[in-house]
Specification:
heterodimer, A: alpha+beta, 16% strand, elongated, B: alpha/beta, 10 strands
Chain lengths: 416, 236
């Protein structure tokens, strides 16, 4: 106990150099844990985005690509599904529910998604939660729109406000002849839904009814006149499917993939996510590896600091030896010292990370839609802490072995 | 534990210790005995091999030939770890200067040897109270001993803390290596007075090495290191 107390005293007596070393370790640990946090947070965030959907159908493309544009609103569809094909699939007996998605337009950088009321009923996120309305109601009128929480917050919209949808994703052409009205605002989900403007499939048709080849024709059709027209869409971008039984998923997937009249593709969201992780995994591993190297570098810096101090501490070691301490005890004390520094660094690092997360969490959420949960330290942190302390002890073994040899040679006397 | 009786506190016989160098060095002591409870003044110039001699008595080094016995125990027959333990249990050491761990409090400095000597610790009972008693007996202000780092003490106070540390747990042998050389003449006399008083109270044997012959009066016996030891030095 006295040795522990003396080690603490010795460290506090050298508080400047020790403090800097602790801080270096703390920063490296915070970086490492931060990277881990973002990594797992991103995975969880991605995995939480969709649940309860058995299959996603789209035009034939890459599975990951289909997942990205249909669920995450990243990238664009190169092709659509024809309405006939969609209708045929929708009538198959395996289908419990099917929700169409039509993408392509935007509103101030937010994606506009056409769908039907089934979307609010069947879309699930974060382990089966349904979408809830923070304000207002669903799509009742043709030109009603339901907006995500981020859209409402960033644009300052409330129920009843008018909205004009722009054509395409980055264009200056607006569908300003057919304005929408905000009928409802969804609760925050922490998924891309927050950044989506939802309209009905018919509304997508309606605003494009007088458009040909990417430009509005001169024969414009007024908003009210559109209401009487047949607004059945010609195509949809993708569709989400729930099957009557999990056992039928693969059979249905095969049937869709082999659909004869159109090149279609069905993916299982979980598997596509897995595929995505395999792509991202390399970068992740590199990132984790680099941040682990930063921790190692900080620990080596600590070893250098202890090394540099050894010569000045020969007298101290001679005193310990005279009191009857074995050279092995001196070795242990130096390892203990290294472990204490590493432990202090790791603890401070965790504190820094927590502080940083408290500050950065809302910003990261707003900027990237990445929700990083602020959990109390769990097993992962405990293991990380243990690993850093252990690594600190191992690295500390280098100067400790030198001190061991010095104290064997010096004995009670100090030859300078 | 060996009681002080007719048994010698230190007995060195036909001992030789050296290293090949460079520079080669060899110290030989044919016969040196200190009776239990005796106070012996060992006069030696610096470079006379006294540090080496002390390290052999304390069991830091082991002679290549001959015997070193402390309180009847043949140190030269023990392994390194056993010698360290023996030193912790039986020998109190006082250095010339910088005796203390500067970052630790005086109290922790006094208690430190007990960490390596469980027997000695058992003998003490309430270690903290005993440390404070010794400190007070040595004229150290108790609040200075209890609070603040050792570095805040004056040199004279530090040397007295070192005495308390050497004496705690009543080790049979106290070895002091020029303990007064950092003190001025007046402080030297006062320091020796206190050292003798406490060593007598405990009944320990005292072996003090110094190059200053004026300090020898108080001791039972005075020995010239050059008379008992033969030193050979090789060329550098």
């Amino acid at each position: 106990m006295i040795l522990f107390r003396l080690a603490i005293r010795s460290l506090t007596a050298r508080r400047f150099t020790v403090g800097l070393t602790v801080f270096a370790i703390a920063l490296s640990v915070a970086l490492f844990l931060g990277v881990e946090k973002v990594r797992t947070g991103a995975r969880a965030s991605f995995a939480d985005t969709i649940s309860g959907t058995d299959l996603i159908v789209g035009a034939r493309t890459g599975g990951v690509q289909l997942l990205l544009y249909s669920v995450f609103r990243i990238g664009n569809a190169t092709n659509n599904i024809g309405w006939e094909a969609y209708s045929e699939i929708a009538e198959r007996p395996e289908i419990d529910w099917i929700v169409p998605i039509s993408l392509g337009d935007s509103h101030h950088g937010f994606r506009v998604m056409g769908t039907d009321t089934g979307y609010f009923e069947h879309h699930r996120y974060r382990g089966g939660r349904s979408l809830g309305f923070a304000e207002g109601t669903g799509l009742d009128d043709l030109f009603d729109t339901v907006i995500g929480a981020d859209v409402a917050r960033e644009m300052g919209y409330s129920v009843g406000d008018p909205i004009v949808v722009s054509h395409g994703l980055a264009s200056f052409t607006d569908h300003d002849d057919k304005p929408f009205r905000v009928s409802g605002i969804l609760e925050k989900t922490g998924t891309p839904v927050d950044r989506t403007v939802i309209v009905s499939l018919e509304a997508i048709s309606a605003i494009h009814v007088d458009w040909k080849n990417g430009a509005q024709s001169t024969n414009r059709i007024a908003a009210d006149a559109v209401r009487n027209m047949d607004l059945t869409p010609e195509t949809v971008t993708a569709a989400m499917i729930g099957t009557t039984s999990r056992l039928k998923v693969f059979a249905l997937q095969r049937a869709i993939n082999e659909y004869p009249r159109e090149p279609l593709m069905a993916i299982i969201p979980g598997l596509a996510l897995q595929e995505l992780w395999e792509i991202v995994g390399v970068a992740e591993t590199a990132l984790v590896g680099v941040s682990a190297m930063v921790v190692v570098t900080a620990l080596l810096g600590m070893a250098a600091m202890i090394f540099a101090g050894l010569n000045e501490r020969r007298r101290e070691m001679a005193i310990f030896r005279a009191m009857g301490a074995r050279p092995g005890t001196i070795l242990l004390m130096l390892v203990l010292e290294a472990m204490l520094i590493a432990a202090a660094g790791a603890l401070l690092g965790m504190a820094l990370l927590t502080l940083g997360m408290v500050i950065a969490q809302p910003m990261v959420d707003a900027a990237f839609g990445l929700y990083l949960p602020l959990d109390p330290p769990g097993r992962r942190e405990l293991v990380g802490f243990g690993a850093v302390v252990l690594a600190g002890g191992l690295v500390g073994l280098m100067p400790a072995l030198r001190a061991y040899r010095m104290s064997l040679a010096d004995g009670m006397t100090v030859r300078n | 534990m060996v009681e002080a009786g007719d048994q010698a506190a230190i007995r060195v016989r036909e001992m030789a210790f050296g290293w090949a160098g460079p520079p080669a060095f060899r110290l030989g002591v044919a016969d040196f005995t200190v009776a239990a409870g005796e106070t012996v003044f060992l006069l030696g110039e610096s470079g006379s091999g006294k540090s080496t001699f002390l390290s052999l008595i304390c069991g830091i080094n082991r002679p290549q030939q001959g015997r070193v016995e402390i309180a009847g125990k043949e140190l030269s027959a023990l392994r390194a770890g056993q010698r360290d333990r023996f030193r912790a249990e039986n020998i109190g050491v006082i250095f010339q200067m910088f005796n203390l761990l500067p970052y630790a409090g005086a109290l922790d400095n006094i208690l430190l040897p007990l960490r390596f000597a469980p027997e000695r610790r058992k003998r003490v009972g309430d270690a903290r109270a005993e440390a404070m008693r010794l400190a007070t007996a040595l004229g150290l202000p108790s609040d200075l001993v209890e609070h603040g780092p050792a570095a805040a003490l004056s040199t004279g106070q530090q040397q007295r803390v070192a005495v308390a540390r050497a004496l705690i747990g009543q080790p049979p042998l106290i070895v002091a290596d020029e303990p007064t050389s950092a003190l001025d003449a007046g402080a030297q006399a006062a320091f020796l007075e206190l050292l003798f008083e406490q060593v007598r109270a405990v009944g320990s044997t005292l072996l003090m090495v110094s190059h200053d012959a004026r300090l020898a009066d108080r001791f039972d016996r005075q020995v010239q290191l050059s008379e008992i030891a033969r030193i050979e030095r090789g060329a550098r």
